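cron nightly-structures :: item 1 of 1
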Amino acid sequence: MHGAISGSGRQATFEDLIAIPDDRRFHELIDGELVEKAAPSGEHGRTQSKLANFIGPFDRRGGGPGPGGWWLMTEVEIRFAVAEVYRPDLAGWRRDRVPECPRGFPITARPDWVAEILSTTNSSTDRVRKLNRYQHHGVPHYWILDPIEQSLSVFRWTDGGYLLVVAAGADDRVHAEPFEALELVVGELFGRE
């Protein structure tokens, strides 16, 4: 399902989204359009797993030795507006801003960080449409990972639009906000040992 509902020309709604059976609901509602997410490739799944492992130390209460201070989740549906429900590959909320772990379906608390891993069929959605919508809704940090190019792009929210603060390739070592407390070897996110 893509675009308007059954060729009717009307905008899709949250009710249209949740009417899709759970076992087939791999969709997002972007500006009133139901957009089916691409089936994840092996490269996508491995990158998602590696990124989740890297940021894992941040998914705890802060204040002790090492990083912390975040609620982190994968593949949850987040409602930004009436006709906007996204399912980012990974998302995080700062515990100092959202003291209780976000719960329910869909989550309605705006995340502080979102990461999308590109697939060949959804690249423009993540690089353009979602980037613009996340910026519009004030998501402070947006990461785009490209498993084919083995690159990481890190964006920071500003009033004028997202500012690219890191553009890194597989051989680069970076301290990428908001997880700059740990050094990231970019190639490791794509399975390089």
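cron nightly-structures :: done
The helical segments are 14-19, 42-55, 123-136.
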